[in-house]
Every structure is written in C-alpha cells, then in structure tokens.
Amino acid sequence: MLVQTTVAVGIKRYPRFLRCFPTLSSLARASKDAVLKEWEGLGYYHRARHLHEAARIIRDRHHGAFPSSYSDIRALPGIGDYAAAAIVNFCFEGNVPPIDTNVARVGARLFGIAGDVRSGGVRREVRHRLHGLMSVGRGAVWTDALIELGALVCAPRHPLCPSCPLRSDCRAYRQGAVERFGLPPARPPQRREVNVACGIIRRRDGRVLIAQRPEGGLLPGLWEFPGGKRQGNERISETCRREIQEELGINVEMGERHMILRHAYSHIGCQQFRWVRVAEMSRYAFPAANRHIIAEIERPENQP
Ligand code: SF4
C-alpha cells in the first residue's frame, strides 16, 4: 500500500483491509472485484490483483501456509528477486543477498567489480560473492546491515569511507578509486531539437516587444522575442503568426525578412512582456540564440 499512497492513508487503510480479509483463506475466497473495491484509491491496482492471486496459489499449492523457500516465494505473483530475498531472510532465516541499487553499489565497491551497477552481470556477481559471506540463520541482520550501509554510509558520491566498518576489506577504497565502482555510467545529456519561430514586433516609436520566460523550466527568467514551437509541417511564418496570436491575442502581418538559426529548447509561455528600445536591449538577459537576432536588429540599415 505504501508504494503509491502516504503513510497517513496507509495507517488507516491497512487495518481496514485486514478487517475485510482477516486471513489468507478469506482473501483467497473473496472475489477479485471485492479485493479491488477494498483497494480503491490506493493506486497500483495490479498489486491488489497479485495479492489476491498469491493468496489463491498459497491456498491451493501450499496448503494455506506461506512458503518458506526462496524459489517458492519468488514464484508468487508480484514478488521479485529483492522482495523474495527480504522475505526469506527476515521471516525464514534465509541467507539470500537482497540486491537493490544500494546493496549492488556496496558489493561492487567491496569486491572491486567494475561495470554498470544496473547490469544483470554485475548484480549476479555481487549476489554470488555476498552469498558466500552471508551466514545461514543471520540473513535478517545481514540484510538490514547491507541496506543501511548502502543508504547511509556508502553513498553514490562522497561515501563516508573513514567510518565504514568494511573499509579494511574494501577493494575500491584500498585502490583509492571508490567512485570508479558501483555507479551507472554517466548519460550523455539529452538533446531535443525543435523548430522555433519568433517575431520582431516593432511599435511605431521603434520599440520592440520582448517576453520573459517563466521561472520554472528551461532558461528561467531570460528574455526572448515572442514566438514558439512549430507544429507539424507548418510554414515558419505561419508558426510565428499563430504563436503571437495565441500568446498576445494580436494578429500580425509578416514582413519580408526572416532569418534561420539552429537552437534547441522548449517554449512554455512567459511571465511578462515589455516594449524596449533597441539601445536598451543589452540590459536584458537573452538566450544565446537571441543575440544573433539582436545583432541584426541593431544594424543601422534595419532601423525604422
Ligand atoms: S569503504 Fe567506502 S566504498 Fe568501501 S564499502 Fe565502505 S563506504 Fe563503500
């Protein structure tokens, strides 16, 4: 329940769920609709379905007793590697390493396993190596320790190695290369290219209209010329006319001149407009692409 709702809601709904389905057999006997109805508003409805199916499997294949082996628990619907390891360790004295991102990072550093910590290969190797260390009957303590160590000490960046109980055995630490292990490779920055049209709107007194971008989002607070993203195969002049109509509520006629620049960004409205003299434009912060347009406007032959 807590995956998709607040603790306050979970505290109310969990006892209510147990009142409705107080035993595994009462949950297994219930209709799917009744279970979904009781789950209403808690989100992630496939969890309710899995819970219900699991109750039926336990009733039918395990004589109503929750299975105690890792493989039987893992075979229940909705239970993955990590949850199965945690259940078998905490409830049945198992010793299966629970590999989440934090534990995989600790393992990769402790054993000096290079590679993408999210990959199946690195995780299998970490699981295999940790399994060799985890003592039977102490799985709950190991699980707790590994999870806490990964979350509180062996942080992705700037881990607290001097106070880590594993430091004398930790390969990454001994090599002085902690941040070379246990991290996903840096992703190249995502580029999104869009076609944007903007218009130079001049008043009779020569002042030009500029707009300030909103505080949230890309290039917050910078100024730019009014316009926006091209839609489909729209002609650029049409984009300009439409965007200005949508943003300012005015119809503009397009002049003869236009220029094309390459620049990628998203347009999400603006917070204010201002009419400014060309000579004043240097006082406003514009995105780099707009500087080319300003240079054009400032040319003497382009003055009204
Ligand atoms: S010594 Fe540092 S890198 Fe190694 S497990 Fe401890 S915190 Fe992580």
Word description of this protein:
A three-stranded antiparallel sheet has the order 3-2-5, with no helix packed on it. With 304 residues, it is mainly alpha-helical. The chain has helices at 7-20, 24-29, 32-39, 45-61, 70-74, 81-92, 101-111, 120-133, 139-153, 171-174, 236-248, 288-298; strands at 196-198, 208-212, 223-224, 227-229, 272-276. The longest helix has 17 residues, at 45-61. It has twelve helices and five strands. The chain is elongated and about 90 Å long. Mean pLDDT is 86; it is low at 263-268. 43% of the residues lie in helices and 6% in strands. The chain starts with 6 loop residues before the first helix and ends in a 6-residue tail after the last helix. It has three domains: 7-66, Endonuclease III, domain 1 (Orthogonal Bundle), CATH 1.10.340.30; 101-180, Endonuclease Iii, domain 2, CATH 1.10.1670.10; 196-302, Nucleoside Triphosphate Pyrophosphohydrolase, CATH 3.90.79.10. Helix 6 (81-92) packs across helix 9 (139-153), helix 7 packs across helix 8 and helix 7 (101-111) packs across helix 9. Iron/sulfur cluster (SF4) binds at residues 106, 109-110, 153-154, 159-161, 164, 166-167, 170, 172-173, 178.
